[in-house]
Amino acid sequence: MISHKVLNMITILGVGNLLMRDEGFGPQLIMHLQDNYTMPSGVDLVDGGTSGIYLAPIVEDSRRLLVIDVLAMDGAAGEIHHFDGCDLGGAGLQLRMSPHQVGLLEIIDICRLRGRVPEEIKVIGIIPEKVELGLELSPLLQNKIGAISQLVIQQIEEWTNARVVAGPELAEPTL
Q1: 172 assigned to some structural domain
Q2: Of 68, 86, 56, 43, nearest to 149 (Cα)?
């Protein structure tokens, strides 16, 4: 008998280092979504932290992938940027935490070589204010959690045609 693995319809992946203040924005946003919203069926919220190459199965098992991360690019702290899969090379994503680690762009390239890349990849990124040892986001980025949560929710609702609801209720299809 041949078994077919069921792909996650949508993965929302927050990446970053929680120990480096604003660098942990992605995982902080995932925690906020988990604590405050009920996602439609088929949506997986993943705190990718600094898992490096271990994120490859998550990327490969997703039909649609939305990455939340901080950006290493010119601009004002707190600026929010959106990128589609074809634009990722210029997205300013953190490539790696150390010279020995594989970065997210490299993971996506590895998955592409294996023929197992999501059909659609999007990134919502923010320029950090403080990347230094500490557990809390800067006040500037903390104040952006709500706005970026709404962007993520809009994307989920567009992809699923279902509402993301606040609290523990079940998501209902929109018709």
Answers
A1: no
A2: 68
